[in-house]
């Protein structure tokens, strides 16, 4: 499909029908499935969709959600209820429509040659990494998944990852599942002894403190590391300059230059 | 009703409809190339351009409020040279009038920007004298005499219609509007964002890196509308009305209060295709009211 300048579309604005909006755990985590037509074909791991949770002016802005997985003309989002926007989204029902723009952002830069990939997920950060894991599987690239959360309930997608026949390591801060501690502790142990002759690449998504620690560890072992960041986003297309972060190349827009950044570029 | 006219003329700039995408919310246009057909709009106003590139204010630059958006971008832009070389050519592909918004730190900088733009095929130049997010001193648009001086100097140099964007952060906006008119402004744009703030109570920190920001969105609409109505009573210049317009009813309120055209800003973020619904809504309204021309609705408020 082409736009008015006869160029192929990179993103679209559509009305996406909800086919599923299922509570995964105690009104906190939900999986949303939407009919999205062409967007599913355009979507790449690490990109997001920009959703209006209702047609009102509260909340005013669209909300960005990482793409969790795609199917034939459909797309899944995994989200955590953290505020007004996600509270409203959790109330939306099958058969209703959501105004969606996407796919947006740059996505994960996929490795060129043969590498071993380490995925580091903190809490809901697992959402975008699963889409990446599917792509890595398709490309027959070996990878391992580290998932961390506060407690057992915050560990999502463990079984889904296991179905991809990969090692999944879990940590929780309270020790109710997997190792007691932080997911970056697992990374710290893994990187010196990766059990692989291949060069390592790290991809991570999670909270800020996890990002900083992941970046620090990756630097220590001289391993390339890509982080998928989150910010309040207004336009979502790179126009308003509202969602910038500071990098070695100056301010960069999370919505357009990101959300995925090389960890060495980011100035925390 | 057939043959409904939505065309408007602003000081010689011919618009196919009264909808204008406003400065700062539309970037340089190309960012929206998949979502907005510029040819369907009355006009577009570029991101404000300065002489030198500007990196803008420290993040965080955005905070959401009740029906509002608070920003502290700080005129981040590529600067005039890169704008002319890399950004303007894209906008010139369309038949829609391009208005370039400019800002300088001194009158001399404004004049230099105007000189560079005089070499280009553009429909108008808008003086952004009202950005609330640069520096701690007052903006030009908060002072009658400074407004008069700058607009007068700019008008002398400008070869296309001159727009002046007014600030709502004043005691009496009509005095500034009159200053701009006396100095030779061709079109008034009002209003820019409202100086405002928001606080994170958990951290006791301002939500914006710049502490203060500019409030936009539906939250400001009734105040912007009041200002527009007041300015309309004091001037016969064409006015572009803006401030929280998201649908055709909002647009009609501004037109009835006296706007010759209306600007969309924050609405673009919420719904890039909002302009299509507004154009349709205006046509439906005119048809229902049996009015054949949108210009007949301008300043048509029934005041008892």
List the helices and strands and how they pair.
The complex is a heterodimer of chains A (about 270) and B (about 300).
Chain A: E1 12-25, E2 29-35, H1 39-42, E3 48-52, E4 63-66, E5 69-71, E6 74-80, H2 84-91, E7 97-104, E8 116-122, H3 126-138, E9 143-149, H4 158-162, E10 167-172, E11 179-180, H5 183-190, E12 200-205, H6 208-220, E13 225-228, E14 244-247, E15 250-253, E16 260-262
Parallel strand pairs in A: 8-9, 8-12, 9-10, 10-11, 12-13
Antiparallel strand pairs in A: 1-2, 1-7, 2-6, 3-4, 3-7, 5-6, 13-16, 14-15
Chain B: E1 8-10, E2 13-15, E3 19-21, E4 43-45, E5 62-65, E6 68-71, H1 80-91, E7 98-102, H2 107-118, E8 124-128, H3 144-157, E9 162-165, H4 173-182, E10 187-190, E11 194-196, E12 199-200, E13 205-206, E14 213-216, H5 221-234, E15 239-241, H6 248-257, E16 261-264, H7 266-270, H8 274-289
Parallel strand pairs in B: 3-4, 3-16, 4-7, 7-8, 8-9, 9-10, 10-15, 15-16
Antiparallel strand pairs in B: 1-2, 5-6, 6-14, 11-14, 12-13
Helix pairs in contact in B: 2-3, 3-4, 4-5, 5-6, 6-8
CATH class of chain B: Alpha Beta
Residue share in β-strands of chain B? 15-25%
| Major beta-sheet overview of chain B | 8 strands, parallel, barrel
The name of the CATH architecture of chain B is: Alpha-Beta Barrel
Kindly, what is the distance between the CA atoms of the first and last residues of chain B, rounded to a whole number of angstroms?
A: 30 Å
| Percentage of residues in helical conformation of chain B | 25-40%
Helical content class of chain A: 10-25%
Describe this structure in a few short sentences.
By secondary structure, chain A is of the alpha/beta class.
Notable traits:
heterodimer; A: 268 residues; alpha/beta; Elongation Factor Tu (Ef-tu), domain 3; Rossmann fold; 2 domains; 7-stranded antiparallel beta sheet; 7-stranded mixed beta sheet; 16 strands; 19% helix; B: 304 residues; TIM Barrel; 8-stranded parallel barrel; 4-stranded antiparallel beta sheet; globular
């Amino acid at each position: 499909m082409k736009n008015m300048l006869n160029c192929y579309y990179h993103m679209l604005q559509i009305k996406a029908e909800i086919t599923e909006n299922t509570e995964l755990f105690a009104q906190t985590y939900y999986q949303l499935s939407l009919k999205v037509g062409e967007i599913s074909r355009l979507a790449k791991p690490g990109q997001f969709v920009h959703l209006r949770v209702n047609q009102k002016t509260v909340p005013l802005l669209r909300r960005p959600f990482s793409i969790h997985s795609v199917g034939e003309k459909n797309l899944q989002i995994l989200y955590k209820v953290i505020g007004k926007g996600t509270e409203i989204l959790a109330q939306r029902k099958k058969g209703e429509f959501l105004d969606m723009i996407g796919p947006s952002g740059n996505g994960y830069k996929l490795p060129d040659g043969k590498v071993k990939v380490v995925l580091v997920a903190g809490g809901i950060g697992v959402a975008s990494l699963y889409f990446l894991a599917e792509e890595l599987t398709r490309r027959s690239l070996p990878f391992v998944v580290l998932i961390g959360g506060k407690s057992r309930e915050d560990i999502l997608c463990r079984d889904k990852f296991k179905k991809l026949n990969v090692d999944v390591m879990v940590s929780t801060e309270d020790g109710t599942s997997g190792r007691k501690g932080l997911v970056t502790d697992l990374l710290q142990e893994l990187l010196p002894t990766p059990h692989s002759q291949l060069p390592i690449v790290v991809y991570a998504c999670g909270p800020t403190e996890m990002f900083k620690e992941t970046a620090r560890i990756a630097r220590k072992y001289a391993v390339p590391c890509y982080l998928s960041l989150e910010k309040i986003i207004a336009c979502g297309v790179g126009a308003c300059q509202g969602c910038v972060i500071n990098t070695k190349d100056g301010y960069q827009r999370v919505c357009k230059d990101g959300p995925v950044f090389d960890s060495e570029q980011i100035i925390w | 009703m057939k043959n409904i006219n939505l065309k408007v003329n602003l000081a010689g700039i011919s618009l196919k409809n009264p909808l204008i995408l406003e400065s700062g919310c539309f970037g340089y246009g190309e960012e929206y190339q998949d979502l907005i057909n510029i040819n369907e709009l009355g006009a577009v106003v570029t991101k404000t351009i300065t002489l030198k590139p500007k990196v803008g204010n420290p993040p965080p630059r955005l905070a959401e409020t009740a029906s509002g958006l608070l920003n502290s971008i700080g005129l981040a832009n590529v600067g005039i040279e890169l704008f002319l070389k890399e950004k303007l050519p894209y906008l010139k592909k369309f038949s829609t009038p391009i208005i370039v918004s400019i800002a300088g730190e001194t009158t001399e900088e404004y004049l230099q920007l105007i000189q560079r733009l005089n070499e280009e095929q553009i429909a108008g130049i808008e003086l952004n004298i009202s950005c609330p997010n640069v520096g701690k001193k007052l903006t030009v648009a908060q002072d009658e005499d400074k407004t008069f001086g700058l607009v007068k100097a700019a008008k002398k140099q400008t070869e296309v219609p001159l727009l002046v964007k007014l600030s709502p952060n004043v005691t009496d906006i009509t005095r500034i509007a009159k200053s701009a008119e006396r100095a030779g402004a061709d079109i008034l744009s009002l209003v820019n964002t409202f100086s405002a703030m928001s606080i994170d109570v958990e951290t006791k920190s301002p939500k914006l890196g710049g502490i203060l920001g500019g409030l936009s969105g539906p939250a400001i609409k009734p105040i912007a509308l009041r200002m527009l109505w007041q300015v309309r009573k004091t001037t016969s210049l064409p006015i572009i009305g803006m401030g929280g317009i998201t649908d055709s009813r909002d647009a009609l309120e501004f037109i009835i209060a006296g706007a010759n055209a209306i600007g969309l800003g924050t609405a673009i973020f919420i719904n890039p295709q909002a302009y299509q619904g507004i154009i349709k809504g205006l046509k439906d309204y005119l048809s229902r009211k049996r009015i054949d021309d949108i210009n007949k609705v301008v300043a048509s408020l029934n005041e008892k």
